[in-house]
Amino acid sequence: MTLALIAGAGALPAALVAALPQRPFIAAMEGFAPEGLTPDLTFRIERLYPFFNALHAAGVTRVAFAGAVRRPRLDPALFEPSTAQIVPRLMHTLAQGDDATLREVIALFEEEGLQVTGAAEIAPSLVPPEGLYAGQLTPRDQQDATRAAAIAEALGRVDAGQGCVVAQGICLAAETIAGTDAMLAQVAALPDMLRPNPQAGRGLLYKAPKPLQDRRIDLPALGPATVRAAARAGLGGIAWEAGGVLTLDLPAMQEAAADHGLFLWSRASGRAG
Amino acid sequence: MTLALIAGAGALPAALVAALPQRPFIAAMEGFAPEGLTPDLTFRIERLYPFFNALHAAGVTRVAFAGAVRRPRLDPALFEPSTAQIVPRLMHTLAQGDDATLREVIALFEEEGLQVTGAAEIAPSLVPPEGLYAGQLTPRDQQDATRAAAIAEALGRVDAGQGCVVAQGICLAAETIAGTDAMLAQVAALPDMLRPNPQAGRGLLYKAPKPLQDRRIDLPALGPATVRAAARAGLGGIAWEAGGVLTLDLPAMQEAAADHGLFLWSRASGRAG
User: Fold this and answer.
1) Does B96 contact A169 at a Cβ distance shorter than 8 Å?
2) CA of B110, closest CA in chain A: separation in Å?
3) Which residues on B lie below 8 Å from A151 (Cβ)?
4) Residue A193 and residue A182: Cα distance in Å, rounded?
């Protein structure tokens, strides 16, 4: 059962590899190099079937996805013939949004006999269970987390994003394509008059998977850099849906949270599964 | 029937005044000066009942709200005694979000015998009916507007914001406390790799009232500056919920749209009233 990691950009792929009992085969999409890993293979969507053949040749039977991949701009000149035949199918699902596209990506791998497994499943140590991992919660923080979870669910249900920032009930930012770091930078740049009085509650970053996404792919991830960015944004902490979010180096996150006086809360979602 | 305009910041109050048959009494909240208008009276939330008395003394029987007002930070030292008595009530609704707060503000005025009327009702010329006011729509634009309307409805239903930016089905930004201009600046600053190929559709700004808001207050507004900001963000146009959005100087918006090759589309919502 050889595992291949289909690695996107950022620090998550290396964290996942470090959490596995042995190094997997590592494939990376051209243009989305993982940090701190040397891929065994680089592929392009336009040549997906040759890529599948290379995975089979390497004895791969299972794959896991980790790391950021944005919709690549496809180059019609590069299409290999069998991949070109699935273009209409891909275009159809792309038009339906990310959730549908990622489900289709999973289906394409599975049709090739490659079992798709979730990062959370192969590296459960990266998914902290419910609990408070740093700091203290005020009742205001708990109310803000409840409100933020409702906003994130609404955003996720329309396949728009996986998080938001809430302070004293006010939504200071909603995550979309630009991602968490960009959202926190927006919050850091908010004019003082738009922010509720920080004396009454600093607010929080909340992250959760989208309600309709396949959890084997594209789980939200948090790391020490997120903690520092949340501190720069003036927030009181980070809350996330327990079981639905990957953490990169939780001890380092806890250390950064302690340095900046932030809480870290893996919060029960109140939703089934 | 003397009308008072409770004016917030920005250009909308002056546009509303210009659209009325006669100049109303103009009141402005301290710190939120309307552009191009000289208020007859400036008030603070901490002294709401003295403000009501001043409106009565001026013969005011009807009020309309227009312009941006953010949640003010209240100064306990400034509270007049009768206003202080409603603080618990205000705090309770503030905790429930903007929709509840604005309904409570309306209720406070109505309890004083002041009829609250919508800007759209007293100046219907500011609310363009369904129609295409500039440019041309592609099928892609129509799909993006459908998707954007669904996202804006989801965001609005959780009382988070009144708009979003969508390109080729992808949500590039969602509006929250920082407002439309900040959202368009974020989109203008998006790294090229995060944007879908502009050849296949430039995307649009979409604006709509929140589904649960009282439409007598805080309708979204668009103006020529919005058109120019949408152009800077690389968008193909602006769509909005017909009947639910105020326009400041539609002819100037049309001129700016023509200059930049943008469409302006007042779109039937498909929702009842």
Assistant:
1) yes
2) 26
3) 155, 158, 160
4) 21
The SS3 assignment for B267 reads strand
pLDDT value of position A71: 72
Distance from CA of B178 to the nearest CA of A (A): 7
Determine the pLDDT at residue B62. Answer: 97
- Using a pLDDT cut of 90, give the percent of chain A over it: 74
Over 90: is that where the pLDDT of B193 sits? no
Q: Which two tokens stand for residue B18?
A: 């210009």
Q: Is the separation of the CB atoms in B161 and B174 below 8 Å?
A: yes
Percent of chain B clearing pLDDT 70 (strictly above): 98
Q: Which residues on chain B are in Cβ contact (under 8 Å) with A164?
A: 160, 176
* Residues of chain B positioned with their CB less than 8 A from the CB of A172: 176-178
* Spatial distance between the Cα atoms of B153 and A61, rounded to a whole number of angstroms: 43
Check B155 against A161: CB less than 8 A apart.
Answer: no
What number is the average pLDDT over the span B129-151?
Answer: 97
Give CA separation, B269 vs B67, B105, B164, B195, in Å: 24, 27, 15, 27
Which residues of chain B lie closer than 8 angstroms to A169, CB-CB?
94-97
Token pair of B72 as six digits: 């003010």
| 3-class SS string, B249-264 | CHHHHHHHHHHHCCEE
> What average pLDDT does the structure give for chain A?
92
Question: Can you give the pLDDT at residue A271?
Answer: 55
Which of B61, B74, B66 lies closest to B30 in space, CA to CA?
B74
Tell me how long chain B is. 273
d(CA B242, CA B124): 12
Q: Which residues of chain A have pLDDT under 50?
A: 272-273
